Amino acid sequence: MTQSYRITLLPGDGIGPEIMAVAVDVLKVVGQQQNLTFEFNEALIGGAAIDAVENPLPKQTLDACKQSDAVLLAAIGGYKWDTMPRHLRPETGLLGLRAGLELFANLRPAQILPQLIDASSLKPEVVEGVDIMVVRELTGGVYFGSPKGVFSTETGEQRGVNTMAYTVAEIDRIGRVAFETAQKRGGKLCSVDKANVLEVSQLWRDRITDLSSEYPDVELSHLYVDNAAMQLVRWPKQFDTIVTSNLFGDILSDIAAMLTGSIGMLPSASLGADGPGVFEPVHGSAPDIAGQDKANPLAQVLSVAMMLRYGLDQPAAADKVESAVLTLLAQGYRTGDIQSPGTTVLGCKAIGETLIQILNQG
Ligand SMILES: NC(=O)C1=CN([C@@H]2O[C@H](COP(=O)(O)OP(=O)(O)OC[C@H]3O[C@@H](n4cnc5c(N)ncnc54)[C@H](O)[C@@H]3O)[C@@H](O)[C@H]2O)C=CC1
Ligand SMILES: CC(C)CC(=O)C(=O)O
Ligand SMILES: [Mg+2]
């Protein structure tokens, strides 16, 4: 029987439309092969939405996302909007989408593919076999805490304020996702915080420690975030699953990206308790290479695989997408960001066409 899904597409800004085009082509072909049909609905977000309707997250877009089975997002942002007031910034639209869909758990896998060992910034013996899942809290912490703003002090000086805050309920729900993720993986969970300095981090550490009694099969450890950043580069193989707050997870997942060769390789899944998830690359809109056919579309394509696996419960289709990416790399095709001697560098579009050929060859 054919299974049908409604997918909202949010291409966004910069390289977003280029990598989204590749991902949609891949999804259509895999859909035909797996008896899945997709009803696509493209909507505005970020800078593109600001330009069109002066709102980085139009109500129509959020409503369309809520009515979908899954949302595929590319990236938002760009120099053009960097000096706009906060409510007219692309990033405000992205945060609004995450909050609006209550996507509190962001899964960011960083896996070194054997074909890309030469592309990593680290020595082969350091990165070989690395397979890390960063579980990042996504709707709390300093990105959302109040008070926030720029206020005047008694002396008339301006003072910028953001607040890092977590409730017990927020820590517990991301903690449970992390323990359950670790149970399905290597059984090790490292919680990353700054409990030596921050009250919010001490509460985080205490709660995660308490929760661990419910997961005796998971080996829990704790690291301060500065040490964790260093350890990720020093000996990344010590990590299996990492759980951390919104800001720390944002930074640590970009570090983890470079272990795998390029930020252009890292997909992610943003999930809530129920309702549609958003599937998006870890990287941003890369305005420095936008419109030049240089973008690596593989993080977006691998986000399609995460959508099929985590959002639509179609693991066989997800396997097909991931295996096509591995074949492409094994055949020596690369975008510029992951090139190494002896490989063939292609543009974003040509990488997409080659992936389709690989999929059609079965
Ligand atoms: N989820 C999202 O939509 C995110 C949006 N942003 C926004 O993106 C804009 C640019 O931010 P940046 O700090 O420059 O981060 P970025 O991730 O867009 O780019 C950082 C560097 O990585 C390269 N890069 C990124 N993705 C690539 C890809 N697929 N293929 C090849 N190279 C790639 C870029 O060319 C750039 O040199 C900003 O407006 C930022 O707020 C940043 C991160 C996440
Ligand atoms: C652009 C920010 C709002 C988010 C970000 O950098 C990320 O989610 O990786
Ligand atoms: Mg980021």
UniProtKB/TrEMBL annotation:
Its cofactor is Mn(2+); Mg(2+). The keyword Magnesium applies. InterPro entries: IsoCit/isopropylmalate_DH_CS, IsoPropMal-DH-like_dom, Isopropylmalate_DH. Pathway: Amino-acid biosynthesis; L-leucine biosynthesis; L-leucine from 3-methyl-2-oxobutanoate: step 3/4. Mg(2+) binds at residues 226, 250, 254. Binds 1 Mg(2+) or Mn(2+) ion per subunit. NAD(+) binds at residues 78-91, 284-296. GO terms for cellular component: cytosol. Homodimer. This is 3-isopropylmalate dehydrogenase. It comes from Acaryochloris marina (strain MBIC 11017).
